[in-house]
Amino acid sequence: MSALNVAIIGCGGITLQNHLPGLALCPEVRVVALCDAHAPTLEKARQQTGAAVVSERYEDIVRRDDVHAVIIATPNITHPPIALEAIAHGKHVLCEKPLALNRADAERMATAAEAAGVRHMTAFTYRFVPAMRYLHHLVTRGDLGQPYHYRSCRLQDWGTRFLGWRQQRALAGTGELGDMLSHRIDFAHHLVGPMRRLVANVKTLTPMRDGRPNDTDDWVGILAEFEAGATGMLESSKLASGRNESWRSLDYVEINGSEATFEFTTGRWNTLQSGRKGGPGLAELPVPREFWTWPGSRRDPAVGDPLVSFRYDQAIEFVNAIREQRDCAVTFREGAQSQAVMDAAVESAARGQWVDLNPKR
Known about the structure:
9-stranded mixed beta sheet; Dihydrodipicolinate Reductase, domain 2; 2 domains; Rossmann fold; 11 helices; alpha/beta
C-alpha cells in the first residue's frame, strides 16, 4: 500500500473535529499540507498535524505534485474555485456541503471531476450514522413497501450568537437551509429518490447576531412531492429555544410506506423505531453490529462517543474509494442534486409558489 498524501484547505472546527480524526484512522495516509486564510487557525492545525507545508493561498497547495487528494472545508462561496483548481491538477476532492451557492456551479464541479477521472465526494456526514445506514438497507430491501411519506425535523437552540461567515448570504448562500437542512434533503433522496416539485418558506428572525448583521435564514420549511409519488415535509430551525444543540437536540426522520413505518433519530445511533401495517405502534429495532461501522473502517465504536465518531467513517470512505478506484458513496452529483432542491426552495419562498425541480423546456 503506497502512501496517500492529503492536503486540507480550511482548518476550522469541522476539520479538527471530523476530518483529521478520520484520516488518522486510515493506514498510510499523511496530511502533508494545510491552507487557511486565517493565520492563527492555520498555525493551530499545523501544530496538531505536524504538516510541513502551510499556506494562506489554496493555489499554492493544489498545484503541488506531492498532494494526491484535497479536503475543502472553507466558506461556501469558495468551494467551486478551489475544487475546480484541484480537479484541474488531478487531485481527488472531498468537499464540505453545500457544494456551491447554486446548482449550476455544483453541476460544473461534478462534470469536471467526472471528466478528469478523479474521486469526488460531498460531505453529507449523516449518511454514516449506523442507524441511517440500516434504515436505507431496510428501505432498499423492500421492508417499507411503497413509500408514502417522508418527514424530517431538525431543531436546535443557537440563540443569537455570532456565526461568522455563515450569517452572510454573500459567503454562505443560505443559512439553515444549506447548513442543516441540506443533510435532510440528502436523506430524502437517499431513502425515497428525487423530488418532483416543492413549495417552501424561509425566515430570518435574527437580523442581528451578537450585534452584527445577519441576512441568512434561521428557519426553513419545505413541502415536497417525489418522483415516486410520496410526499415530503422538511423543517429546520436554529431558534428552537430550549432544544439544546448537536445530538442533544431534535434530529428526526420518519418514513411511512405501504408495509411499515421507520423512525430514525441521530441521538439513537444504534436503534430505530419501527412498526408494521396494522400493528400496535412503533417499537425499538436494534441496528445489527455489521452496520455500526462503515465497510473497510478500522474505527472501534466502543472507543469515544459514537454520536461523534461515526463522522470519522466519512474520511475512511473517501480514502478507500481512492485506493479502490471506484466512486465515492456520496459524489458531487448527489451534492448537486441537493443544491437543486435548495435553489428551488429559495425561488419558491421568493415567489410564494410551487416550483418544479425539472421543468419541461
